[in-house]
Amino acid sequence: MLEYTNKIQEIAKKILSEGKVDMVIGFRKGTIPMMSEPCFVTDADGVGELSFDSNCGSNLANYIMDRKEKIGIVAKGCDSRNIVNHIIENKIKREQLYIIGIPCRGMVDRHAVGAALGGEILEAVENADSLVVKGVDGEATYSLVDMLQDNCKTCTHRNPVIVDEMVADKVEEQQDTNPYEDVKKIEALSPEEKTAYFDELLSPCIRCYACRNACPLCYCPTCFVDESRPQWLGKSQDITDVKTFHFLRAYHCSGRCTECGACENACPMGIKVRQLTKKLNMDCLETWGWEAGLTVDARPALDQYNLNDPEEFIK
Amino acid sequence: MTVIKIDKTEFASGLEKLKGSNKLFSPAKKGKDFEFAKLDAGEVPDLEGCRNTGMSPKSLIYPQSETMFEYTTEEADPDANLMKDVEKDYAPRVVVGLRPCDAYSFKLVQRNFESPEYRDPYWADSYEATAFISIACSQPYSTCFCTTAGCGPFHEEGSDIILAEDGDGYIAKAVTEKGEKLLADAGWATTAEGGEDKFASLKKAAEEKVTSSIDISKVRDMAILDLYEADFWEKEAFACINCGTCTFVCPTCWCFDIQDENKGKEGVRMRNWDSCMFPLFTVHGTGHNPRDQKYMRLRQRYMHKLKYYVDKYEDDVLCTGCGRCIRMCPVNIDIRRICDKMNSYVKA
Ligand code: SF4
Ligand code: SF4
Ligand code: SF4
Residues with Cβ within 6 A of ligand 3? Predict the structure, then answer.
């Protein structure tokens, strides 16, 4: 995907100098290996700052809500689905956007690379299919495919669903990726085992809310966790409060989550927060055949009523 | 101060002795990182395995959630509606294997919790009850910039004993009276021939390995308002998602929020870490928020660490250079980069 950088810069330069947009939102190279930073460019001469590689896991749709400018935005498959969500939910207008589409081959999980290397990543060079990483005790080469973020491993919408200009030809979509295998396993647990599982999953949480803030769906002016009248939940490390935050947030994302993985990518504690949202995505798919953010022409699963909606769950 | 050599067996047996009258804490692997945990009888810490912990040791002295008072609103109770102190455990504790920058961080934080005017009893009592045996760094991270942030890989201030890895054991240097006493209690007594020199040469080698830096030389003389109104804040803050991770992992971020929590008629008053990166941090009762834009919040964090604190105490930065915020920020906001923007700022 390295070749995308030139094309992104070229498109950005064009749309900025033609006055089609006021700003272009993309990524710039990070200050440490395997990181990149969301950034914006307003000047055609500044497009050299923009770059793209397999470390662009942040979801840029998170940076456009309620903006008034005309915006060029670099969008992977998942980002584009969140842009669709925003359009449906009136957080941005389609006419305001010039979507620079990235046919995505998956983002690399830097925590997984760190774990495989067994320590700090001092240098990382990305090639077409591989990643050469230098650590304190030497060098290792990994195949990019093996180091993908969990959500990318099972992603079936790698090409943007809404786009003004692609940076390259579409990539082939993955088939039969079985994304809900782990959810089925949890579903099979007894209630006691489930409680233990979620306690264990969420006990390292420090309640920084990076997961929520990295998520383009979480744009409420005041999140329920921050409400004080009434105060829905306590602010300490009490596990009940921690779980309440996570469970409720997940419900607020049902029928909207695009599996972009920004939450997990952001969590400083490495918590697999998608274990919760995935279950709701699976239910939406199995119950209504619904996947979020694929088209601006349909209302989301929990946003509409159909006479032929299944009702077996009503007991 | 005493400088001695301890071999690994002596080290382990000494820790066992210390466990008799102290609670010991040290880094232990938990999930993807090392975190501080209680060291039980028979356990020896893996000091070499841990380059540094994910979270800083600040929660050992200043827990993320801490109950200060308890109360009841049950009118039949003679103590109804009174805030009563809760019982605290300030029995002696020893933290083993923290890094020198983290030991030093408590000295910076002390200015806030234990000043000539105010004494925060929870922080101060807890700090007083704790001794620190730090381990000098032989392998700093590429993101460590301690040597330009007022300390270094062999910095002594804040530690009671500082250990340096040396072949099959450690060179240990007692830095304080508390440290001398710990050496005696642990029965660590072998004198090291030329220990001081060895220590100094290890120190020099380690400092050379710290390759990253910050520079506030120009910031010191800049007018606060010029920097405050500088034009780079919005651009630099763009990526920030205001998650507060940088402040939670930081050993020198000290802000908290006080909350009452009740269940039925019983309740507690507690304090929880807060963060200047959270929009809620500055919301007034009226709903007005003087820092309602994220760049204002980001500016606050870095201005506090690199300018306000420096000016107020005429000292170094409110940062030890541990690099955690750089390693943990999900969107790569880098204090070194921000510092550079500040230091090279020229008013238009
Ligand atoms: S990002 Fe991680 S630690 Fe922070 S609130 Fe979410 S799950 Fe908890
Ligand atoms: S600087 Fe980074 S870690 Fe700190 S609040 Fe912003 S996004 Fe979170
Ligand atoms: S500001 Fe960053 S580098 Fe400085 S002490 Fe805090 S976490 Fe460490």
Answer: B 249-252, 305, 319-325, 335
